[in-house]
Design brief:
Elements lengths: L6 H5 L3 E2 L4 H17 L4 E8 L5 H4 L5 H9 L12 H7 L3 E6 L9 E8 L4 E10 L2 E7 L2 E5 L4 E7 L6 H7 L3 E9 L2 E8 L5 H10 L2 E7 L18 H11 L3 H13 L3 H23 L15 H4 L8 H18 L4 E2 L9 H12 L4 H21 L4 H4 L5 H15 L4 H13 L17 H20 L8 H14 L16 H9 L8
Parallel strand pairs: 2-3
Antiparallel strand pairs: 1-12, 2-4, 4-5, 5-6, 6-7, 8-10, 8-11, 9-10
Length: 522
């Protein structure tokens, strides 16, 4: 069933610590889902990474290892204990094995895992990180499944099922979907619900088939999915047409969309955006105060802007944008709490630029919250029709997406129309086609910081062009379609693997070796 993108699940989030939303936050969510799939204490955990994928080179430097184990221990993506997760688990008796072994897969962020418990349970699970902290679980015990973390999931493995789908719909409360699959003489019944199945319904299910294994786990995303709703609109063109009928702006449409998609009130949507904004603003303060962390290549850079302000070109706005973006990127790299918006690698461009412009223009708190929601709405279209994963489409998917979201947000902030905001997003995206992802040492620092700066300035330019009435030429829907195609044409070596670009320069290789990344991994 189709699960539509959410502003808070897919775009403005996750709230996390760690260098990468795809590789850290997503791995925590995968680990948390795995933990719930078994009843006993986990005694053995194994994760295999294909050498042709991105995780073989990055699972240590971008913290997939500690994320997975932290999730198995029940930690969330903001838990300060994540850096010690493996030691904590091993001290408690868990055997942990990470292997780089070839296997067939269709996605560069594929986790092939085995867990065993003290109750004799053994589970084999394949999971994907699909960008921005979002996950998919396509296989459990060799059965094909569709799990994305937005529902309560119940899986019963056993013999032939004795009831029809109509019976299930009548007996199981809050049922969103029921799928039955047969494989090698076994049956899988997979239920998605909006609440945990109560004991009485579980007893009834056990009477409908001889159950050999019962797996149930809760959602791991901030906003729950629901039975596929009829959406208000599916394209930017449709959104603009609806907004013009009712004289609404981009922020209004964001409020309506997320309220409808998540079955929550617009007031709740607004409050969630306020909470996200508060974390972003606090991140700037933390970064400007100076951060430190042993395992990174760049020291604290953000405070240098004020120290050297007289040397810089232009008025206070570009300096403040650079300062804010630096602060947020350094909060990320020092394992402090931040918002991936839309990813950890691009976490500086949107909040750094938007907050700087808001301060410079003396905009209200409400103006700023609504601009952030507008950014989220642009991000929804990218999440629906392209990707935020650099492993799939290079850095244009991360920093490039952040530029498009920021441009739309800036127009909203300045009181522009929905057409102007959407055009600004399209112009900003058009400027970043083909941006590669070549992080030195497979770490999210260099050239990530500079690319966030570039995309902040790109967004500012695109917003001004749209506000001035420049012709967008190619509308947003078409731009996103082309953006997605181009990103997937970028060679794998330039999609967050460390196998080309700045990562393979003599300086880049020397830094990687100094930081403990073996040369054969990058």
């Amino acid at each position: 069933m189709k699960e539509h993108a959410s502003i808070f699940n897919d775009v403005l989030g996750p709230v996390m610590i760690g260098p990468s939303s795809s590789h850290t936050a997503a791995s925590v969510r995968i680990g948390r889902a795995l933990r719930q799939m078994v009843a006993g204490k986990i005694t053995y955990f194994q994760a295999d990474f294909d050498p042709e994928g991105s995780l073989a080179a990055s699972y240590i430097t971008q913290c997939s290892d500690i994320g997975l184990v932290g999730g198995l221990l029940g930690m969330d993506p903001t838990d300060s204990r994540l850096t010690r997760a493996i030691a904590i688990a091993e001290d408690d008796g868990m055997e942990i094995v990470f292997r780089i072994v070839p296997y067939e897969n269709d996605h560069p962020n594929t986790y092939k895992m085995t867990i065993k418990t003290d109750l004799g349970e053994e589970l084999e699970v394949v999971a994907l990180s699909v960008g921005g902290g979002m996950i998919e679980i396509p296989q459990i015990n060799h059965f094909a499944v569709e799990v994305t973390g937005g529902f309560y999931e119940t899986l019963l493995f056993g013999d032939e099922l004795k009831v029809t789908e109509a019976d299930l719909s009548e007996k199981i409360s809050k049922l969103c979907s029921a799928v039955v699959k047969q494989q090698a003489g076994k049956t899988l019944l997979h239920l998605k619900t909006q609440q945990a199945i109560p004991d009485s319904e579980r007893t009834w299910l056990n009477e409908q088939m001889t159950v050999e294994r019962f797996i149930a786990f809760d959602p791991v995303l901030p906003v729950m999915s629901q039975k596929e709703p009829e959406m208000l609109f599916s394209t930017a063109e449709e959104m603009i047409a609806l907004a013009k009928k009712e004289q609404l702006d981009l922020a209004d449409m964001a409020l309506r969309y997320e309220s409808h998609r998540g079955s929550i009130s617009e007031e709740e949507v607004y409050k969630k955006a306020e909470a996200i904004l508060e974390i972003m603003e606090n991140g700037i303060k933390v970064g400007l105060a100076g951060t430190s962390y042993d395992d990174r290549m760049l020291g604290s850079q953000a405070p240098k802007i004020q120290v050297n302000r007289k040397k810089l070109i232009g008025n206070d706005l570009p300096a403040k944008i650079i300062e804010n973006i630096s602060a947020l990127m350094e909060v990320k790299s020092s394992m402090n709490v931040f918002v991936a918006a839309p990813t950890a690698g691009s976490c500086g461009a949107l909040p750094g630029t938007l907050i700087a412009v808001s301060d410079y223009q003396k905009k209200s708190h409400d103006d700023l919250v609504r601009a952030l929601l507008a950014a989220g709405m642009i991000g929804v279209f990218i999440a629906e029709y392209a990707t935020f994963a650099a492993e799939v489409a290079g850095c244009q998917a991360e920093c490039g997406s952040g530029a498009g979201m920021t441009a739309g947000a800036l127009v909203q902030l300045m009181g522009g129309t929905i057409e102007e905001a959407v055009d600004a997003a399209s112009m900003a995206l058009q400027n970043i086609f083909g941006m590669v992802c070549d992080p030195i040492g497979v770490r999210v620092e260099v050239p990530c910081l500079g690319k966030n700066m570039m995309c902040g300035m790109n967004a500012l330019g695109a917003a001004n062009m749209a506000l001035a009435g420049y012709d967008v030429v190619v509308p947003l829907d078409e731009t996103i379609e082309s953006f997605n195609k181009v990103g997937r044409m970028i060679p794998p070596e330039l999609r967050c693997t460390g196998h080309a670009g700045l990562a393979q320069t003599p300086s880049g290789l020397a830094i990687a070796e100094r930081l403990g990344c073996p040369l054969d991994c990058c």
